[in-house]
From TrEMBL:
Superkingdom assignment: Bacteria
Protein name according to UniProt: Pyridine nucleotide-disulfide oxidoreductase
Organism: Paenibacillus graminis
Keywords: Flavoprotein, Oxidoreductase
Residue ranges occupied by any FAD/NAD(P)-binding domain in the UniProt entry: 3-283
Signal sequence bounds: none
Subunit (UniProt): Homodimer.
GO molecular function, one term: oxidoreductase activity
InterPro entries hit by this protein: FAD/NAD-bd_sf, FAD/NAD-binding_dom, Ferredoxin-NADP_redctase_2
CC cofactor: FAD
Length: 302
C-alpha cells in the first residue's frame, strides 16, 4: 500500500505531524512501537493545557484526536528498514510487512544509556530525573545531587540552582569542569565530589542517601542524572542523510534532511532540549513542509 507520508515514531513530534497532515487530507501511516522514552515518568510538564499529564494519557488523547481523520492510520510495529524505491520509499517492519510512501518523517526520538549505578533504576522517574525544566519544580528547595561526567554538567548545575541552593555535583572523576567553573560553583556553596557514585539508597522510589565509592554518604532526597543519548532508530546507512555532532539527523528549520523526501522532527533531529512542546512544534512545521512539497510535485505533474 502506498501513502503520501510514512511517519516513524509516535511521540509528540510524529503525532502532531500526523494531525497536521491528516487535516490536509494526506494519506498517512504512523509506525509506533509504543516504547516512549518518557514512559518511566509519572508526569510530563511544560506543555500548556497539559502540564502534569501522564505520558500514557498524553498519547491516548493524541491518538484520539489524530485518528479522527480517516486518512491517518497506525501500525504498532517497529520499522526495521527504509530505502528508496524509485520515486518513493520502501518501509519494512518487524512483522515482515512493508509499505511505500512518497515522503518519510523520522520522529523516533532518543534512547537513554544510563550509568550503571545500583539503585538508579528504582529511583529514576520518581526522585531522580534528567531534565530540570521537566522536574525541577517538583524537587524545589530539596537537597539534590547532580550526577554527570559530561561537559554539560556546569550548565545543568547553574540551571538547577534556580530550584535548589543545596546541591552536590558528582563528576565521577571526569575532567569536565574548568578551574573557573569550579570556583564559581564553590562560591555558591555547591560541593564538587570526584568520587564515583556507588549507590542510590531509598525506598519506594524516594531517594534518601547517595553512597560514594570511598564509603561516604550524603543525605539527598532527589537529583538529576545525565544519560548518554543515542538515536532510537538509525537509517543513515540506508539513506545517507547527514548527522549533527550530537548524533541527530541534520535538518533545516522545516525538518528537511540532506536527502530529498526524508524529514526529521523532535529529538531525532535536534536532540536537546528534550521537551514535549519543542517536539510537537517541530512535527507541525515538518508536516507543513511535507504537505507543501507534495503539493508542488502534484502541480508540476499536471
Amino acid at each position: 500500500m502506498s501513502y503520501d507520508c510514512a511517519i516513524i515514531g509516535g511521540g509528540p513530534a510524529g503525532l502532531n505531524a500526523a494531525l497536521v497532515l491528516g487535516r490536509a487530507r494526506r494519506k498517512v501511516i504512523v509506525f509506533d512501537d509504543n516504547q516512549p522514552r518518557n514512559g518511566v515518568t509519572h508526569a510530563s510538564h511544560g506543555f500548556i493545557t497539559r502540564d502534569g499529564v501522564t505520558p500514557a494519557e498524553f498519547r491516548r488523547m493524541a491518538y484520539e484526536e489524530v485518528l479522527r481523520y480517516p486518512s491517518v492510520t497506525r501500525q504498532s510495529f517497529q520499522v526495521t528498514d527504509v530505502c528508496r524505491a524509485g520515486n518513493e520509499f520502501l518501509i519494512a517492519t518487524e512483522n515482515g510487512g512493508s509499505v511505500t510512501a512518497r515522503k518519510v518523517l523520522i520522529a523516533t526520538g532518543l534512547r537513554e544509556i544510563m550509568p550503571d549505578i545500583p539503585g538508579l533504576s528504582e529511583h529514576y522517574g520518581r526522585s531522580l530525573f534528567n531534565c530540570p525544566y521537566c522536574d525541577g519544580w517538583e524537587l524545589r528547595d530539596q537537597p539534590l545531587i547532580v550526577v554527570s561526567g559530561q561537559p554539560g554538567v556546569f550548565h545543568m548545575t547553574k540551571i538547577l540552582y534556580n530550584w535548589s541552593k543545596d546541591l552536590i555535583v558528582a563528576t565521577g572523576g571526569a575532567d569536565v569542569l574548568t578551574m573557573e567553573q569550579r570556583e564559581l560553583l564553590e562560591s555558591r556553596n555547591i560541593r564538587i565530589i570526584e568520587q564515583p557514585v556507588a549507590a542510590f539508597i531509598g525506598s519506594g522510589g524516594k531517594l534518601r542517601q547517595v553512597e560514594f565509592a570511598d564509603g561516604t554518604h550524603f543525605e539527598r532526597t532527589g537529583g538529576f542524572v545525565a544519560p548518554r543519548l543515542q538515536p532510537k532508530a538509525d537509517f543513515q546507512a540506508q539513506l545517507g542523510y547527514e548527522v549533527t555532532e550530537s548524533g541527530g539527523i541534520a535538518a533545516n528549520e522545516m525538518g528537511k534532511s540532506s536527502v530529498p523526501g526524508i524529514y526529521a522532527a523532535g529529538d531525532a533531529s535536534y536532540v536537546m532540549p528534550s521537551q514535549l512542546i519543542y517536539a510537537a512544534a517541530q512535527g507541525s512545521k515538518a508536516a507543513m513542509s511535507i504537505n507543501m512539497e507534495l503539493t508542488e510535485e502534484e502541480f508540476a505533474y499536471r
